[in-house]
């Protein structure tokens, strides 16, 4: 037999003295590791849990944050403060509500308050301006409420 046509063993265990897995085993292992890695990335991309603190969370941990003026939020309306990721609504006169503006579905910021609902344009979720509860899915959880007060015409959250 020439060097090009050496006999191959029928089974990997027939290779006495050779160490390590065969090519097929290595390829199967690589495929499994790759599939697990892709699945992990996909799941991570769809969750907001275990995410680092956003700028507004860092500010709230340091104490209350003034987000704007009370006259910026009319009765029956709301305003999204993108710089702090907070949405403030005023369902009734002098009844202010504040929520984390990140949609619990995939973490997009809600975009506006219209006709009594807080809207997320990413996937169409809607939330009640009264309590942040889900009005329209795909979000399964409501917006996280935040403590809010109005002092000297300023909206203070935290």
Explain how this protein is built:
This protein is α+β, with helices and mostly antiparallel strands and 158 residues long. It folds into two domains: 11-45, no CATH class; 55-157, Rieske [2Fe-2S] iron-sulphur domain (Rieske Iron-sulfur Protein, 3-layer Sandwich). It contains two helices and eleven strands, in the order H-H-E-E-E-E-E-E-E-E-E-E-E. The chain has helices spanning 23-45, 55-61, and strands at 65-69, 77-81, 86-92, 95-100, 112-114, 117-119, 126-128, 134-136, 145-146, 148-151, 154-157. It has a four-stranded antiparallel β-sheet, with no helix packed on it. It has a four-stranded antiparallel β-sheet with strand order 5-6-7-8, with no helix packed on it. Strands 1-11-10 form a three-stranded antiparallel β-sheet. A hairpin with a 5-residue loop joins strand 7 (126-128) and strand 8. The longest helix has 23 residues, at 23-45. The protein is elongated and about 80 Å long. This is Cytochrome bc1 complex Rieske iron-sulfur subunit. Keywords: 2Fe-2S, Disulfide bond, Iron, Iron-sulfur, Metal-binding. Residues 1-21 are annotated as: Disordered.
String of helices and strands: HHEEEEEEEEEEE
Strand content: 25-35%
* CATH hierarchy class name of the largest domain: Mainly Beta
Provide a count of the helices.
Answer: 2
Gyration radius, rounded = 28 Å
CATH architecture tag of the largest domain: 3-layer Sandwich
- What is the strand tally? 11
Structural class: alpha+beta
Poorly predicted residue ranges: 35-53
Largest sheet: 4 strands, antiparallel
Mean pLDDT: 78
Strand order of the largest sheet: 2-3-4-9
Distance between the termini: 82 Å
* CATH domain topology of the largest domain: Rieske Iron-sulfur Protein
Q: What proportion of the residues is helical, as a percent range?
A: 10-25%
State the fourth-level CATH superfamily of the largest domain.
Rieske [2Fe-2S] iron-sulphur domain
Shape: elongated
Tell me the domain tally.
2
GO molecular function: 2 iron, 2 sulfur cluster binding; metal ion binding; monooxygenase activity; oxidoreductase activity, acting on paired donors, with incorporation or reduction of molecular oxygen
InterPro entries: Rieske_2Fe-2S, Rieske_2Fe-2S_sf, Rieske_Fe-S_prot, TAT_signal
Organism: Embleya scabrispora
Keywords: 2Fe-2S, Disulfide bond, Iron, Iron-sulfur, Metal-binding
């Amino acid at each position: 037999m020439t060097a090009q046509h050496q006999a191959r063993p029928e089974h990997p265990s027939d290779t006495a003295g050779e160490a390590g897995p065969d090519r097929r085993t290595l390829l199967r292992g690589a495929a499994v590791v790759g599939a697990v890695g892709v699945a992990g990335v996909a799941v991570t991309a769809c969750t907001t849990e275990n995410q680092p603190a956003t700028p507004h969370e860092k500010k709230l941990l340091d104490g209350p944050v003034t987000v704007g003026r009370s006259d910026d939020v009319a009765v029956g309306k709301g305003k999204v403060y993108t710089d702090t990721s907070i949405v403030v609504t005023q369902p009734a006169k002098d009844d202010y509500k504040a929520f984390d503006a990140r949609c619990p579905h995939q973490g997009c910021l809600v975009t506006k308050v219209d006709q009594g609902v807080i809207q997320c344009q990413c996937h169409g979720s809607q939330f009640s301006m009264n309590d942040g509860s889900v009005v329209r899915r795909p979000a399964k959880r409501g917006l996280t409420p935040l403590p809010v007060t109005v002092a000297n015409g300023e909206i203070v959250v935290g």
